[in-house]
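Researcher: We're teaching a course module on how sequence relates to structure. For the next exercise, students receive a sequence and then see the predicted structure as C-alpha cells, so they can try to spot secondary structure elements on their own. Here is the exercise chain.
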Amino acid sequence: MRDFIIEPWFRATRKTYEAQGKRVYYLSLEFLIGRILGDAMMNLGLFETVKDVLEQEGVSLSDVMENEPDAALGNGGLGRLATCFLESMSTLVCPAYGYGICYEHGLFRQKFESGRQVEHPEDWLNQPHPWEFERPEARYTIPFKGHVDAGFNWHPSETVYARAYDMPVVGWQGKWANTCYAYGAHIRPSCLIWSVSIQAITPLPPHPKR
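Model: And here is the predicted structure for the students to work with:
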C-alpha cells in the first residue's frame, strides 16, 4: 500500500514543479489527517482487494487499521477542515501544500474519568509513523527571546531548528496527491550544551539552618 500511495504523490510533485504554475499554500496550526491507510485505500479503490488478501492470510484488516497511530496534529474541527481542503484539492488535481506543526506529543488526549473530561499527553509517536517522511535537508532556524537594540534590530538569545516531515494526502481515485508539511522543533546541540553548562556551574543555595 505504501508504494501505491507514494507513486501518485511523487508523480504529482514532479508535475507541479515541471509546470511552474500557481499553487495553493494552506497554513494551519492543526491538520487532523487521521489514519492515512484506510482513507488512501478507499480513494485508490483498493479497500476490498486488500481486505480479501489479508483474510486469505488470516489477518483482519480492521486490526491492521487500528494499529496505525492516529496522527495527533490537532484536536478541533478546524484541523479536520484543513485536511478536508487538502484532500478536496487533491481530488480536483489542484497543486496545494499544507504547512503545520508536528506536535511531538500531540496536543492532548481526552478521556472521561468519573464523569469529568480529563486531558492526558498524546504519545502517538511512540511507534514509527509509516506515512511520515523526514526531510533533514529542509531545516530552518527559528529564533526566540533576546532583545531589541536602539536601531530596532532584534538579537535573539535562543534558537531551535524546524525540520520538515512530509505526509501525503491522496485524492479520490488516486489521480493526484498533495503534501502536508508538518514542522517539528529540534534543539540545537550548542544550546543544549550551554544549558547543561549553566546548570553545572550554578551553585546550589545553602541549606537552611535548623
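Model: If you want an answer key for the exercise: Strands lie at 24-27, 96-101, 109-113, 116-120, 133-144, 147-148, 154-155, 158-170, 177-187. The longest strand covers residues 158-170.
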